[in-house]
Amino acid sequence: MEDILEIIKGCKSGDRKSQASLYQLFSDKLYGVCLRYLKNEDDACDALHEGFIKIFKNIKQLKEPKAIQGWMRKIIVNTALEKFRNIIHTEPIHEIYVKTKNDETNIESDISQKDLLKLIYELSPQYRTVFNLFAIEGYSHKEISKMLNISEGTSKSNLSRARSILQDKVKALYNSSNLISKQNE
Q1: What is the model's pLDDT at position 109?
Q2: pTM of the full structure
């Protein structure tokens, strides 16, 4: 933790080596955050770089150095959302209200985090963004509606639909892996 405090101190004074160190320490993890919102790798890379520019520009405002990861993550999420809104601007988010079936099937599978992230990545941009903001980042529907300029109802229905799609995909993955297991017996 002592090294990070020195890096932050250097970044606050505009030291390029400290900025490079901070980037090197956190860029991979924050790039993954960008990819959750932006399916295109080039857009995610752009958002990461734009986000780090904002981080370096505003790092003097960081009051609690121990909170650097959460502070940077918030900047990166907001930057990725800005980029998402610019991309989706040509494809407006529609008010989608979908009744979901209440399927109580409980699948206890060994689905890996990597497999689950891949399934989330396959969601439409609107569903993926709302799902990530709610389920992963912990934002409320009210906050999401303001961020994406949609109604709270749209946020809720997009989350509901995303969950339903993910449940179907997990079941399909589970069923196909069970079928393969039975064939190998």
Answers
A1: 42
A2: 0.61
